[in-house]
Design brief:
Blueprint: E1 5-11, H1 18-28, E2 34-40, H2 47-54, E3 59-61, H3 69-78, E4 84-88, E5 92-94, H4 98-108, E6 114-120, E7 131-132, H5 137-145, H6 147-150, E8 171-172, E9 175-176, E10 180-184, H7 185-191, H8 203-213, E11 219-228, H9 238-255, H10 258-286, H11 293-299, H12 301-304
Parallel strand pairs: 1-2, 1-4, 2-3, 6-11
Antiparallel strand pairs: 4-10, 5-11, 6-10, 7-9, 8-11
Length: 325
């Protein structure tokens, strides 16, 4: 019998997380028929073995290399058979009937197109990364001046964080992130999935912008709750930050034009430069070595500022995948 929802997971060295995630999936989806499709992006740990041995009911796709997140999700979608796709990070654990609730919400309000949930930390407090506001010249100005860091989650000075909203009410948002994202198959096909230029970071922003241009209104369903255990930004390696800013630059280059694009990129560079300077200064004053993250991002600004290179795919518009369901 055809499943109601296909849960799409991309793993990469996720052996310590994937069992908890999948156990929560198979407990949480009680009323709906679900299938799980996992694409493993070249893990070098025991991720594949854990899935094969403990969860034989999972569709496991092993392409043999690291395709990146966007291409990995697109590949999982091509193996999915349900009408709804639920993108899920391997470092999440669903709470209760999260799948049932978000699918039911989508069925009742199909005009939104993209649906997210409410992510929590292991201690039950809010983990706000289930959604963000769209980047604007104002939000980038706040980043460039450092005010978004000085006043995190301030409604005006850190607008992309959506203020102190606890994600506990139904609300339309700029971006539903890929850690928990429900979309109907027809909408996914209409939007042609993720743009595979984005190796990691920025693909969900790009998808949200294209969805809104198509008349859709991404929304949060607060009754669909899950735990999302992510590392703090201070522990983020420089390599991941370089990908993050490459993704940000790609979004600006793709969706902004003319003076707005030039200003946006300049503000992005200015914000990185300010943080690199303050990081180095603080290290000198304390007589301790700097982590070097911001300095590395600043030094390599000419590279990430160009965004992700355009990558030809097997069909469609040359940038995004063609879906042959």
């Amino acid at each position: 019998m055809k499943p109601d929802v296909s849960i799409l997971i991309v793993t990469y060295n996720s052996a310590d997380e994937i069992a908890r995630c999948l156990n929560s999936v198979f407990v949480a989806g009680r009323r709906l028929r679900e299938e799980v499709v996992i694409v493993d992006n070249g893990s070098t740990d025991d991720t594949v073995a854990v899935v094969r041995e403990q969860f034989p009911q999972v569709k496991l796709v092993v392409p043999g290399s690291n395709l990146g997140f966007a291409a990995g999700v697109n590949l999982a979608a091509r193996h999915a058979t349900a009408d709804y796709f639920l993108l899920l990070n391997p470092d999440t654990e669903l709470i209760g009937h999260a799948i049932d609730r978000v699918v039911q919400f989508a069925r009742e309000y199909p005009h939104h197109g993209l649906y997210g949930g409410r992510t929590l930390k292991p201690d039950g407090s809010l983990e706000p990364s289930s959604c963000w506001g769209l980047p604007t010249l104002w939000s980038l100005t706040m980043f460039a001046t450092g005010l978004s860091t000085l006043a995190p989650r301030n409604r005006w000075l850190d607008p992309e964080s959506l203020g102190h909203w606890e994600r506990d009410t139904v609300r339309e948002v700029g971006i539903v992130t890929g850690c928990f994202l429900l979309v109907h198959r027809t909408v996914w096909e209409q939007l042609e999935g993720f743009d595979e230029r984005y190796f990691m970071y920025g693909e969900d922003v790009d998808l949200a912008i294209r969805a809104r241009a198509a008349g859709l209104r991404p929304v949060i369903c607060p009754d669909a709750q899950l735990i999302h255990e992510i590392g703090r930004s201070s522990a983020t390696p420089a390599a991941k930050m370089l990908l993050l800013f490459r993704g940000k630059a790609s979004v600006i280059r793709t969706h902004w034009q003319g003076n707005r694009r030039r200003a946006g990129l300049a503000l992005l560079v200015a914000g990185v430069g300010l943080r690199a300077f303050l990081s180095a200064l603080s290290a000198r004053l304390r007589g301790r070595p700097s982590s070097g993250r911001w300095e590395t991002v600043w030094q390599q600004r000419r590279t990430w500022l160009q965004g992700y290179p355009e990558r030809k795919s097997s069909g469609g518009n040359g940038l995004r995948p063609a879906f042959g369901y």
